[in-house]
Amino acid sequence: MARKHPKHGPYEDLREEEEAPPPVPCWLCGRPTGKTIVWHHPVPKSRGGRDVVPMHAICQNTLTTNFTNSELQRHGMDVEGLLAHPNVRKFVDWVANKDPDFTVAPARKQR
C-alpha cells in the first residue's frame, strides 16, 4: 500500500554537498593529483622500502622507465636527486601544464 505522504520532506534528501578535501600534490611533479592516485614506494619494496608517496600514474611510469630498483634505492626520498636526471627534468617540465588526470602510453625503458 502506497503512502499518502513521503516519509521524508522534499528537501531532506538534498543535502548540501560537503567540500572535497584539497587534492594531494604529486611527489614528483608537484601538480595536484586527479581521480587516480598511485601510492608509490620511493624505495622499492624489494629493497626494503615501506614509505609510500602519492603520485600520478604517468609520473610513476617515468620513474620506473628511467631508473632501476637499485638506483631508486640510492635516491630514496630525495626528489631533487631524481629531478637532476635530464629525462625526468624534461618530463616534469613538459607535464607541468597538463590536466591532473592526463595520461599517455608509457615509454620504453632506456637501457
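That was protein one. Protein two is written in the same sequence-then-structure order:
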Amino acid sequence: MFQIGDSIIYPMHGAGIIEAIEEKEFSGEKQQYYVIKMSISNMQVMVPTNKTLNLGVRPVIDLLALKHIIHIFQNGESDSSMPWKERYKVNMAKIKTGEILEGAEVVRDLMRMKKEKALNASEKEMLDNAYKFLISEVGLIKGITEKQTKSFN
C-alpha cells in the first residue's frame, strides 16, 4: 500500500505523486482511492487502492536502478530489422508494461532510428510519449541531478 507523498508510476500516464487517499461511495459500495497528481499532464487521477497491482501502478525506481538503465540506454543493442508495424506493436506492448527499462529501450531504439532516417508519424508520436514518461519518472528519483536527467537526451 502506498502512502501520501509517495512517487509512483501509472502505466501509460507516467509519474505522479499520491496527494491523498480518499474514500468514495459508488452504487452503495465504499472504496478507497489514491488521488494522484500526474506530472506530465498536470491532471489528477483517482485509482482504487485495491486495483493498483492489476493496473501496474508501482513505485518510482531508485538511483541505483537508474544507473543500470542509463548503461543499457547507452550501450544496449537495437533491432531495426523488423517492419515498422510489427515494431510499433512490440514497442507499444513495452510501454504498456509501465516498466522503466522497457520504456527506456523504446526511447533508445526510436532515437537511434531517428538519427538514421525520419520516423513515420506514429513512431514519432510514440517516441515523444515514451520520452515524456521516462523523463517524468527520472525527475522524481530522489538524489538525481539535473545533469543525470539530461543524459537521456
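The chain has a mean pLDDT of 88. Keep this in mind for the problem set.
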